[in-house]
From TrEMBL:
Keyword Membrane found: yes
Organism per entry: Citreimonas salinaria
Record keywords: Membrane, Transmembrane, Transmembrane helix
Record-annotated membrane-spanning stretches: 35-52, 73-106, 112-134
Domain of life: Bacteria
Pfam family, one: TctB
Residues of the DUF1468 domain: 11-139
Protein name (record): Tripartite tricarboxylate transporter TctB family protein
Length: 149
C-alpha cells in the first residue's frame, strides 16, 4: 500500500474519531463538552488537511508499494473498539492505561516495562488534567463500585 493510500485511510479513520468525540460530548453537562468538541474539530481539520495533501501529491508513481499489514491494523481497530466499550462499562482511566500498554506491547513491539511506564505517566497526566484541574467527570462504573464500600 502506498504512503498516499495509508495517509488517506488514516485521515478517514481520524475524521471518524473526531466526529465520535464531538457526538459523545454533546451530552456532557455544562462546559464539560467544550474540550472534546474543540479537540474533535481540530482533529477533523488536521485530518482533512492530510487527506487533501495525499490527494494532491503530484508523483504517486514514485511512491514504493509497501505491504499492508492487515492483521496488525485489524488488531488495532479491535483494541480501539474494546477501549470504547471498556470506557463506558468499566473505567476511563483503566481502559486508557490498558489500551496504551497493549498498543505498545503488541503493535509497536516495545518492552513491557516501557509500555507500562509510558501508560502510567499518560494516565496520571490525564487524571490530573481532567479530574483535578478541570474537575471533568469521566465514565467509571469501577469508581461507583468502590464507592459502595
Amino acid at each position: 500500500m502506498s504512503a498516499s493510500n495509508i495517509d488517506r485511510l488514516l485521515a478517514v479513520a481520524l475524521i471518524l474519531v473526531g466526529a465520535t468525540a464531538i457526538f459523545l460530548s454533546q451530552d456532557f453537562r455544562g462546559d464539560a463538552g467544550f474540550f472534546p468538541t474543540a479537540m474533535g474539530c481540530l482533529l477533523i481539520l488536521a485530518s482533512l488537511i492530510l487527506l487533501a495533501q495525499s490527494v494532491l501529491r503530484t508523483s504517486p508513481a514514485q511512491e514504493p508499494e509497501e505491504p499492508f499489514e492487515g492483521p496488525r491494523f485489524l488488531a488495532w481497530v479491535g483494541m480501539a473498539v474494546l477501549l470504547f466499550i471498556l470506557v463506558w462499562q468499566v473505567d476511563f482511566y483503566l481502559s486508557v492505561f490498558l489500551f496504551i500498554v497493549l498498543s505498545y506491547v503488541l503493535l509497536a513491539k516495545k518492552g513491557v516495562i516501557f509500555s507500562i511506564t509510558l501508560a502510567a505517566i499518560f494516565t496520571i497526566v490525564l487524571f490530573i488534567g481532567f479530574d483535578l484541574l478541570l474537575n471533568v467527570p469521566t465514565p467509571s462504573k469501577l469508581q461507583a463500585f468502590f464507592n459502595t464500600f
